[in-house]
Structure formats: C-alpha cells, structure tokens
C-alpha cells in the first residue's frame, strides 16, 4: 500500500527525475489530454448556466455591438443556444471594472 501511495504522491507532485521513464509517461499523458480532449470542454464563447429551468447565456458586444438592440441580442441568444422558439425573460447589461459595456446576459427558457 505504501508503494501505491508513494507512486501517486510522486505523480501528483511531479517529483520524478527529468531523465526517468516515469517523467516521459507523465508528459505523454499530458499530451494525450491536450490533443484528445473535446473542444466543447473549453468552449466559453457562450457561457451558460442552468437554474430552475432557465438558462442564462452571455452574448458579447463584439457580436451585437454596444448599442442595445434588444431584438438582435435576443435573436443571437436563441441562435447560440439552439432554441429558436425560446422565450426571453430578461436582458442584463454586463460591464467590466472600468465601466465599459462588454456583454449582455440573456435569460431564456
């Protein structure tokens, strides 16, 4: 049992010498993770969270512009989420630390 816990500890803390075969295996595992991980795991172009049957989606001002055109924001949110008949309940403006408008958060059902 000590051997297994020491091996896991060394792998997690990456304490193997650089010229060892264990180092090479850890590097190969990292590369496998990088190249075989689905893109959707890291896709944050449309941040989504689900809460009580309602989904919030963030539409960037790069996509719709900084002037609030509610119809365009709602259309983009429906397209991004893949719900053409989704019902929009609210649209919130999101600002960065400097007060610049950066996105619209759209609540859709």
Structure description:
With 109 residues, this protein is an alpha+beta fold. It has 4 helices and 4 strands; from the N terminus they run ααββααββ. Strands 1-2-4-3 form a 4-stranded antiparallel β-sheet. The radius of gyration is 22 Å and the shape is elongated. The protein starts with a helix and ends with a strand. About 5% of the residues have low confidence.
Please give the share of residues in helix. Answer: 40-55%
Uncertain residue ranges:
48-52
Report the end-to-end length measured between terminal Cα atoms.
51 Å
Structural class: alpha+beta
- Roughly how many Å is the radius of gyration? 22 Å
Q: What's the tally of helices? A: 4
Reading the helices and strands in chain order gives: HHEEHHEE
| Spatial sequence of strands, sheet with the most strands | 1-2-4-3
Beta-strand content bin: 15-25%
Q: What can be said about the biggest beta sheet? A: 4 strands, antiparallel
Shape: elongated
Question: Total number of β-strand segments?
Answer: 4
pLDDT averaged residue by residue: 77
